[in-house]
């Protein structure tokens, strides 16, 4: 290995230094130190370099984490010939494990290929958490010979990982990362926003799915840092709309149908009704 293991290369081999896994009286463990909120004062010395220079050292971290996880969780049973590589086209999924079959003289050997999103995994802690998630998938195939997804075997490996390394966040079926995007499309009527890494939305033909309003394109870094725009945006988020956006979604079609008025007037009526209802809630809460 010796620093190889990404870009389609196998990650197995000898000679990779694996840091001490335990914490001490002066610093956290290596894995715990990769967390974003860990201060340098309490950071494991081997982890500090990966946090400070993640962009240039992420390949090395992939190899180190693979060997650490394989030794401590999977008893070195994940074959060293699996491949791990970066993918710059994955924008809504942080990682994916492809389960493969290799043949040698009609003998099948289970293998795997793990793709990692270069756009989402932009810091050490995200790589740490995503790689163990995907390696649990690789283990169900290469060790257990099962092609299940997030089933009982995957859950068993994930639980073992969390028991061995309690400093890891709970390994769940889905990652919930906030994704930073270069561009933001903002609805000029209801204010809902969509993040994109490129200018992929047609401003002429596209309308807001909540209120049918028009979008305006912004560079995310240049948007005014107000309470409505300062938070990062999730790409292709599956979360449900809340607050005013949900109110618009539930009422727009009905108001438009019965009032037969232009879009801007529909939004004005909905805004007034929403403000009225919010005022009633405040009044009710104030009397308790």
From TrEMBL:
GO terms for biological process: DNA damage response. The lineage of its organism: Eukaryota, Metazoa, Ecdysozoa, Arthropoda, Hexapoda. Residues 59-218 form the SprT-like domain. This is SprT-like domain-containing protein. It comes from Graphocephala atropunctata. GO terms for cellular component: nucleus.
């Amino acid at each position: 290995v010796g620093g190889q293991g990404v870009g389609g290369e196998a990650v197995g081999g000898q000679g990779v230094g694996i840091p001490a896994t335990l914490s001490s009286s002066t610093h956290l463990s290596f894995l715990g130190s990769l967390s974003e909120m860990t201060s340098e004062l309490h950071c494991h010395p081997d982890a500090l370099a990966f946090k400070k220079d993640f962009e240039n050292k992420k390949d090395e971290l992939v190899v180190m984490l693979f060997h650490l996880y394989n030794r401590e969780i999977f008893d070195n049973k994940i074959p060293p010939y699996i491949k791990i590589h970066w993918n710059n086209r994955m924008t809504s999924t942080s990682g994916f494990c492809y389960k493969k079959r290799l043949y040698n003289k009609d003998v099948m050997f289970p293998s795997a290929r793990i793709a990692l999103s270069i756009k989402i995994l932009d810091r050490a802690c995200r790589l740490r958490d995503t790689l163990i998630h995907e390696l649990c998938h690789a283990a169900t195939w290469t060790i257990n010979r099962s092609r299940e997804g997030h089933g009982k075997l995957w859950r068993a490996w994930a639980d073992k990982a969390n028991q061995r390394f309690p400093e890891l966040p709970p390994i769940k079926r889905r990652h919930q990362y906030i994704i930073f995007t270069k561009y933001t499309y903002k609805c000029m009527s209801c204010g809902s926003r969509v993040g994109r890494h490129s200018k992929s939305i047609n401003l002429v033909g596209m309308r807001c799915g909540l209120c049918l309003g028009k979008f305006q394109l912004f560079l995310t870094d240049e948007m005014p840092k107000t309470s409505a725009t300062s938070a990062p945006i999730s790409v292709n988020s599956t979360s449900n709309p809340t607050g005013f956006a949900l109110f618009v979604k539930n009422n727009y079609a009905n108001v438009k149908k019965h009032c037969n008025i232009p879009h801007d007037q529909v939004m004005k009526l909905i805004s007034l009704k929403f403000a009225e209802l919010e005022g009633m809630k405040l009044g009710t809460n104030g009397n308790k």
